[in-house]
Amino acid sequence: AYNVGLTVDIAVPFVFAGAVGAARVASVRMGRVKLVEHESVSGKYPGGHTLARHINIAPEALIARLARRPKLIAASTFISVKEAEKYVSVTLKANRADIMNWMKYASPGSRLSVYHNFSESVGYGVLRGSTDVYQCHRVGVVIEFTRYNGKPYFILSAFPAR
């Protein structure tokens, strides 16, 4: 089996102790992220949008996305689902300690962004105001602490970055 990295299948059991609050324990299992388990079924919240917005998108479509979304400064894409899952898994594994620490104190709905640099290209992107395509060597992953699809969290977005 081809396993790379970490499936941030972070299990967060809640122990409510009346007015004292909640104690959280996080554990991380090794394996590969399956982005489909985090993707929004309806295309609306809750659930992520990595497969819908960051996989195998043509440069012209990235430019069109920037035109539709004025707050975005760049748009990017992974080449394939397989590549995305590989790079997201490695990124989560590289940030394991930060993710576990965040999970201890995260309140429902809070988000954490983590990044990891790679020596090889992980995808490509386009900056607002440009039609030039650039290669990305960094991956960003945004995790939201909201119960979704049987997990206490979901990957809101994962994307190639500069």
TrEMBL record:
Protein keywords: Membrane, Transmembrane, Transmembrane helix
InterPro entries: RNAse_A_bac (IPR041436)
CDD domains: CdiA-CT_Yk_RNaseA-like
Residue stretches spanning the membrane: 6-26
Top-level taxon in the UniProt lineage: Bacteria
Signal peptide: none
Designated name of the protein: Bacterial CdiA-CT RNAse A domain-containing protein
Species of origin: Serratia marcescens
